Amino acid sequence: MRTRPLKVALLGCGVVGSEVTRIITTQSADLAARIGAPIELAGIAVRRPNRVRDGVPAELLTTDATALVKRGDIDVVVEVIGGIEPVRTLITTAFEHGASVVSANKALLAADGASLHAKAAEHGVDLYYEAAVAGAIPLIRPLRESLAGDKVNRVLGIVNGTTNFILDKMDSTGAGYSEALDEATALGYAEADPTADVEGFDAAAKAAILAGIAFHTRVTIDDVHREGLTEVTAADIASAKKMGCTVKLLAICERARDGRSVTARVHPAMIPLSHPLASVRGAYNAVFVEAEAAGQLMFYGPGAGGAPTASAVLGDLVAACRNKLAATTGAGESAYTQLPVSPMGDVVTRYHISLDVADKPGVLAQVATVFAEHDVSIDTVRQQGRNQGGGDEAATEQDGGPGAPPSGSWGREGGEASLVVVTHRAPDAALSATVSSLRKLDTVRGVASIMRVEGE
Amino acid sequence: MRTRPLKVALLGCGVVGSEVTRIITTQSADLAARIGAPIELAGIAVRRPNRVRDGVPAELLTTDATALVKRGDIDVVVEVIGGIEPVRTLITTAFEHGASVVSANKALLAADGASLHAKAAEHGVDLYYEAAVAGAIPLIRPLRESLAGDKVNRVLGIVNGTTNFILDKMDSTGAGYSEALDEATALGYAEADPTADVEGFDAAAKAAILAGIAFHTRVTIDDVHREGLTEVTAADIASAKKMGCTVKLLAICERARDGRSVTARVHPAMIPLSHPLASVRGAYNAVFVEAEAAGQLMFYGPGAGGAPTASAVLGDLVAACRNKLAATTGAGESAYTQLPVSPMGDVVTRYHISLDVADKPGVLAQVATVFAEHDVSIDTVRQQGRNQGGGDEAATEQDGGPGAPPSGSWGREGGEASLVVVTHRAPDAALSATVSSLRKLDTVRGVASIMRVEGE
């Protein structure tokens, strides 16, 4: 084994950085044996050097991150600061000074992965970021390497623990969104400002990264259609249960059937209870990958937290160090397909629509005609009284044909009723246009909820 | 991109080999883009060259595998023949002639992985075998690379699809073992001679490979304690259900609590229905990994079949080709801990024991005394009449203390009853000795079933 150590600089020393430091300092013999040379923590850049950090050697702390990455003797820079700047500049500077970079920065990678990869390649160093997606779960490396000889057609995942905790709570207790968010905040699963999680920004960044790797193209967060879960109601969850489904905030990356484009989106969706993702509880993450030869794979584990994220960072650090020792680099960006990202309107999906309608004859015929006009087939229709969940309901199933109204009259005279329609698969644009037209019907008093149905 | 192709030799062209050939020939542009150079199938060694193989170029077939691996211009040899010899000699010869090897051969790797790794290292080439364990599921690479900075303490997996199909069938239909095996055979999930699967040899080979990689030591199939599922009865499955459990054939690799040894074993076990492995259905595989920093991870997917196995082979092939291009090698064997493998007697587990006992007073006291004498604590005791599943039963729970008999008499006069005891955790040797002593009791007419309880 080489005795001269590889030098590691750490940028950021919060929850993840402290854990990375702890593992590097306490597991040094194991890491050295696995790398083939010892590693040495050469410096830790922090904003507040006087904060108490257990187990972090005070003499390594510096507030000058730029000087640290410019030292010239650093083999690998580990970045766990987050955000776009100054991190982008620091990473680029690290590359220019010959260091490989291990990052947990989903926002930066989703915004600007291509130029960072290009810069790393230009300087003959590695850029690894397993920790940027789904915490400890090995996902980037399996997609990039284990499935390198396969053709991935779909990635469907729960990649945000905060929102999964909230939805799981709503599902198991019947709580509303606000109540579940409050509990997530109290337990530390949600941040004081939960926007990045509940509005789907965090999941959208991860979707962009996953789609780019899975389809060998470039996808940025701006390409990802994004809907958060703030509008998911207890009634939506109850509707899902009636269908044998549960609601999850999903990141979905798909190759179009003709293979000429890809899509990436984040939104709440109903998935059947029989789907492996349906049983992912609490703050856990899981990602389902469908590949042509491999079939259906699922990767499951803790999606966040100091230690799990540090595990992913350390795996990348060992790989980057091994490559440094062998004077080589690992697999870099693979974006050769240059497949374009199609807009949400092109995504083929199904809608579950709850309508508040006038309770009178002919309503269903009117509604069904609107679906037919947009060439959207109806799978099932369920009519129920205002007292949701009561026994006063009827259901019919159709075996295809765009929205032909069932014979007979469903409505009762006067008052309001609700009509739950589940469609067959259709382009999102057609489904969305159908909903717009429905809103214009006199007999439709309101659209109580719209949710996509996935995972079937 | 380099235009001179990398040359690949294929040994074996059965179900997996045909699929590997199909992907190499039909996905050549994608593979070239991902590797950085085209690959060329230079020869395919088969035993029966005249057999019809759709999509396999007849001009590439040869019966002389040795000459093929000796050509000297082969960059990577893909071995999907299986078995120990002549494969070991062919692989060694390939190394000597400068070729990296991708293998799906669990038996060989579990018998002799260390010497093959040494030979590969000696010749500066790669030995990859993702396909040897759990088919398409990325497992070897995540364990070896993604978790390279973590400390794995436990690997618990369903790694044999045939036995999982059989147990799932027994669980869902109440069928007995023979009936379920017949169905597995009829559907092609079990081979005409199912010994390797049902006696646990296949799973034991995989356990040896996983344990060696997870704990950075050397484990061969001879180190793995092995029990098949041929003695699992419908009554065992029913007993498991009563406990809120299901029965799975598990491969379990563990680091001892003191960290100084490891264990590896394959046997049927009850696991709680709430455990993620409990819901792994049919011929699917899943492996649960517990690591210190990462926490609990699970990898799920198709564990066998031509296309899934080919996916894993192709992933390794791309990696081996990339390394050839870069004139480097990937991470090789990492067995630096040299942790010894402890015998089954040292494994700490729990037993679920069903006893046929004389139905008279004092029996429970006698039985409980035997547990106490072996320092085994009883968790629960359930007594039931001969008519299994009937209402005539009583249960007690104890809160620890080695097997103190509950007060009062449980037995009824005359006849037979059955007593179901679930222990707390204890060394397998003590549990096994307890069962031997129980068999010697006059009042114990027989031991109806013994099964370990895992995953809690």
From TrEMBL, chains A, B:
What ranges does the record give for the region Disordered, renumbered to this chain? 379-414
Which residues participate in L-homoserine binding? Answer: E191
Q: Which Gene3D superfamilies match?
A: 3.30.70.260, Dihydrodipicolinate Reductase, domain 2, NAD(P)-binding Rossmann-like Domain
Keywords in UniProt for this one?
Amino-acid biosynthesis, Metal-binding, Methionine biosynthesis, NAD, NADP, Oxidoreductase, Sodium, Threonine biosynthesis
This enzyme catalyses: L-homoserine + NAD(+) = L-aspartate 4-semialdehyde + NADH + H(+); L-homoserine + NADP(+) = L-aspartate 4-semialdehyde + NADPH + H(+)
The record lists NADPH as bound by: K106
Which Enzyme Commission number(s) are listed?
1.1.1.3
| Active site (catalytic residues) | K206 (proton donor)
Please give the superkingdom of this protein's source.
Bacteria
The answer to whether UniProt assigns keyword Protease to this entry is no
Entry binding sites for NADP(+)? L11, G12, C13, G14, V15, V16, G17, S18
Q: Which CDD domains match?
A: ACT_HSDH-Hom
Pathway(s) this gene product operates in, as recorded in its UniProt entry = Amino-acid biosynthesis; L-threonine biosynthesis; L-threonine from L-aspartate: step 3/5; Amino-acid biosynthesis; L-methionine biosynthesis via de novo pathway; L-homoserine from L-aspartate: step 3/3
Cofactors required:
a metal cation
Q: For this chain's UniProt record, which GO biological process terms are given?
A: methionine biosynthetic process; threonine biosynthetic process
Cross-referenced InterPro entries? ACT-like_dom_sf, ACT_dom, Asp/hSer_DH_NAD-bd, HDH, HDH_cat, HDH_CS, NAD(P)-bd_dom_sf
Query: Which Pfam family, any one, appears in the UniProt record?
Result: Homoserine_dh
**Could you confirm whether the keyword Metal-binding appears in this record?**
yes
Question: What residue stretches are annotated with the ACT domain?
Answer: 352-452
Physiological role: Catalyzes the conversion of L-aspartate-beta-semialdehyde (L-Asa) to L-homoserine (L-Hse), the third step in the biosynthesis of threonine and methionine from aspartate.
Task: Please state which protein family the record places this protein in.
Answer: Belongs to the homoserine dehydrogenase family.
Q: What is this protein called?
A: Homoserine dehydrogenase
